[in-house]
From TrEMBL:
InterPro entries named in the record: Papain-like_cys_pep_sf (IPR038765)
SUPFAM superfamilies according to UniProt: Cysteine proteinases
Organism: Candidatus Cyrtobacter comes
Protein name from the UniProt record: Ubiquitin-like protease family profile domain-containing protein
Length: 425
């Protein structure tokens, strides 16, 4: 997914490296499309620990990553894997983190509490996911679950994670499960393929991942299926409202972690108002863009209809040919084409113009035949008309024919010109 913390945003939206970005700084919280940073996620999972895990008596560092808890759940700090120009993988240290937490848990509970669940927020290629490890002390194996808010966890990333975890869990298996050697059969894999984020949303992966991790932990504590989560894309409107509310709560929780106090309501209102203005502006821009495209096509149609009707009236006189002109006006001006700016509509318009030209060409053919017959009739009756009125000269007849044909050609040329202009829209 494309990160929304990019140059497309205002200059004051983000400053510094991704690891140090802070949603509570530089007006970042007012941007609904802000992508959670490593620092943001660290603070948010700390609040999850405070709310969901019950620390052992006597520990004052509540919310700290390695503080032992009565549930035997290790919620790791956010990990990231980067490649390309920069190669880095903090996940390679997850084994040391698991070892540290497990040893402290063993020491403080005298073996009464085992490590049962490990949850890892994972960042890779500008996208947040979650990895969950259940430890079965009876079967002495590990169940690793992958969850991507987009509904499918990349296979190449799975492979990287599994290579790291197989090595990282060796110490725990040897020290706490009594199994020094691990094979592929000791690792069960599954994936929670639920589309929660939806295509086109490149900023809520962090919001959903934090909520999913919270759900996993609470479900595990209550003995329920840990993969049951709150967000599903099949109810888009409700989902969007839930995501807004969830992000607000996470921002408020982060404020508590950083400041030790509740976020003032005026700050919350400012964030919500900024989101509303941002979404309204985006909606208006989309509408304006759509109308602009439609107007370009509609104006072209209006010119074609006007030229076709006016030229048809000027060229074709008489009752018989007026019917042909009515056809032209009906086809050119009577059709109310509700145009949209897409290639199919434009193709239809060009096809209509071609039909108009064919009709006009037929009318002009009738016109030519009409004037040709009229000339022959005038020549046959020339002697009879000499007594009643002066003879019409051949040059006048030729000039009349020439003018009529010239007008007809002018009409066709204008229609052809209009057709060529439409081809370049």
């Amino acid at each position: 997914m494309k990160s929304s913390n990019s140059g497309e945003q205002q200059d004051d939206i983000w400053q510094g490296g991704f690891e140090e970005l802070d949603i509570l700084a530089n007006n970042n919280s007012s941007n609904r499309k802000y992508l959670y940073s490593m620092k943001d996620m660290s603070g948010m999972v700390a609040k999850v620990r405070l709310d969901s895990l019950e620390p052992l008596d006597g520990f004052i560092n509540q919310g700290e990553e390695f503080t032992p808890n009565k549930q035997g759940i290790f919620l790791a700090s956010p990990q990231f894997i980067m490649d390309g120009g920069e190669v880095a993988n903090t996940l390679v240290y997850i084994g040391d983190d698991i070892k540290r937490f497990a040893n402290r848990l063993e020491q403080e509970t005298a073996g009464r509490v085992d490590l049962k669940l490990i949850t890892i927020p994972l960042y890779y290629k500008e996208h947040w996911r979650a990895v969950i490890i259940e430890i079965d002390h009876d079967k002495k194996n590990f169940h690793i679950q992958f969850h991507d808010p987009l509904g499918e966890f990349r296979q190449d990333l799975k492979d990287k994670v599994m290579v790291t975890l197989k090595d990282s869990l060796k110490y725990y298996s040897s020290s706490f499960l009594g199994k020094s050697e691990l094979s592929d059969k000791d690792f069960q894999q599954s994936e929670n393929k639920i589309v929660q984020q939806g295509r086109g949303n490149g900023w809520d992966c962090g919001t959903i991942s934090v909520q999913n991790i919270t759900d996993y932990i609470n479900n595990f504590k209550s003995g329920n299926d840990i993969t049951q989560t709150k967000f599903r894309i099949d109810q888009a409107d409700t989902n969007a409202k839930q995501l807004d509310d969830c992000r607000i709560e996470q921002i408020k929780n982060l404020y508590i972690v950083q400041n030790g106090a509740e976020m003032p309501q005026r700050n919350v209102n400012t964030i919500k108002n900024a989101w509303a203005k941002q979404q309204a502006k985006e909606h208006d821009n989309a509408v304006i863009s759509g109308k602009s495209d439609n107007n370009i096509v509609e104006q072209g149609n209006a010119v074609v209809r006007s030229n076709a009707a006016e030229q048809g009236n000027a060229v074709v006189p008489g009752n018989a040919v007026e019917q042909g002109n009515a056809i032209v006006r009906s086809n050119a001006g009577g059709s109310d084409i509700k145009s949209t700016a897409n290639s199919q509509e434009k193709g239809y318009i060009l096809s209509l113009i071609e039909k108009i030209i064919n009709i006009v060409s037929g009318v002009n053919k009738l016109l030519s035949e009409y004037f040709g017959k009229q000339n022959i009739s005038m020549q046959d009756n020339d002697v009879k008309q000499q007594i009643e009125k002066p003879q019409i000269s051949d040059q006048k007849i030729i000039r009349a024919n020439s003018e009529s044909v010239t007008k007809s050609q002018s009409f066709v040329e204008k229609i052809e010109s209009s057709k060529d202009k439409n081809r370049h829209c």
